[in-house]
Design goal:
The chain is mainly beta and about 325 residues long. The protein has helices at about 20-25, 60-65, 100-110, 140-145, 150-155, 210-215; strands spanning about 5-10, 10-20, 35-40, 50, 80-90, 95, 115-125, 130-135, 155-160, 165, 175, 180-185, 190-195, 230-235, 235-245, 250-265, 270-280, 285-290, 295, 305-315. It has two domains: about 5-215, Jelly Rolls (Sandwich), CATH 2.60.120.10; about 230-315, Jelly Rolls (Sandwich). The chain contains six helices and 20 strands. Strands 1, 4, 14, 15, 16, 17, 18, 19 and 20 form a nine-stranded antiparallel sheet that branches. A six-stranded antiparallel sheet has the order 2-3-5-12-7-10, with no helix packed on it. Strands 9-8-11 form a three-stranded antiparallel sheet. The two termini are about 20 Å apart.
Length: about 325
């Protein structure tokens, strides 16, 4: 069976809050000076990534998923389950919330809700995020929204590079200005805006809000999830499992020389190179890696090794 990793050409999206860091720090060819999102590993119809190498070059990841499920350990489901993004927030994103699977299927007729997590790649000094709210009940949350008491309702948290946040469906949240974030999420584009600072969109009109949906799906009260990092140290590598939950496992790999062989314990593996350069060894084949690469290691790769100086975010469905 073919063990060739699938290197992907990202889909880039302009956003009113976007900037130029995706070009300046990762070298992507951005469509404008307000580019907010790089969908690096995506089979979602709103931004499918295209395979750059091997027998499937020119095909989208969605096409590979549909026709070559053997590459993905014959993983069940009609839709590819995960999506990896890099987000450049030059300005604040809207305060928003995402539904769970059941609500998304019933109300939006899409396969997934949206649970996600964030790794802070870089940020300006004193950057922050909105993470949760202070309302003790849904009724109190509705009252605060109706009265526009955003300063007292929204919970703001300072961030720094290397921080990690788990954002389950139902979590009120917003990435704020100055943050560059890698997001691992379910393959969903369903977002309910609860507040958008009364700012206009490209058409000059205020962007649509989804107040009722937001109130219906928000977790009330907000409770911070407990995270336990699992660290495995080797002579020239450090592997930190940041999260393992119902939809995905996410790890930070730091390679400072050689690591491996790493034995498969995943159906297939999603890799994004945040920094550095090196190589990936699968079987007898070496593949060059550099900052900004996004790729999938297929299920047929029983082991892999890495060499070089590399920082990666690695994820897999569970």
């Amino acid at each position: 069976m073919d063990k060739t990793p699938l290197f992907l050409q990202p889909a880039l999206h302009e956003k009113i809050w976007g900037g130029t860091r995706l070009r300046d720090q990762f070298g992507y060819q951005i469509p404008s000076e307000t580019t907010g999102e790089c969908w690096g590993i995506s089979a979602h119809p709103n931004g499918p990534a295209v395979i750059k190498n091997g027998k499937l070059a020119g095909k989208t990841l969605a096409e590979a998923w549909a026709a070559h499920r053997e590459l993905f350990d014959n993983y069940q489901g009609d839709a590819f389950p995960l999506l990896t993004k890099i987000l450049d927030a030059k300005a604040d994103l809207s305060v928003q919330v995402h539904p769970n699977d059941a609500y998304a299927r019933a109300k939006e007729h899409v396969p997934f809700g949206k649970t996600e997590c964030w790794y802070i790649i870089d940020c300006d000094e004193n950057s922050e995020i909105v993470y949760g709210h202070t309302a003790p009940s849904r009724e109190a949350f509705r009252k605060a929204v109706d009265e526009k008491k955003w300063n007292s309702l929204l919970r703001r948290v300072k961030v720094k590079p290397g921080d990690f946040f788990y954002v389950p469906s139902g979590t009120i949240h917003a990435i704020c200005s100055g943050c560059l974030i890698l997001e691992t999420q379910q393959s969903s584009d369903t977002t309910y805006r609860v507040y958008d600072y009364d700012r206009p969109g490209k058409d000059g009109k205020r962007r649509e809000l989804h107040i009722e949906q937001s109130i219906e799906v928000a977790n009330c009260p907000h409770v911070d999830p407990e995270l336990t990092y699992r660290v495995r140290q080797e002579a020239e590598a450090k592997f930190t499992e940041l999260l393992r939950e119902n939809y995905f496992a996410v790890s930070h790999w730091e390679i400072r020389g050689h690591a491996g062989p790493i034995r498969k314990n995943w159906p297939f593996l999603l890799m994004s190179v945040l920094n550095g350069e090196g190589s990936l060894l699968i079987g007898d084949e070496h593949y060059s890696l550099k900052k900004g690469d996004h790729l999938i290691v297929p299920s047929s790769a029983e082991t892999l090794s890495l060499t070089g100086t590399l920082d990666l975010i690695v994820s897999n469905p569970v």
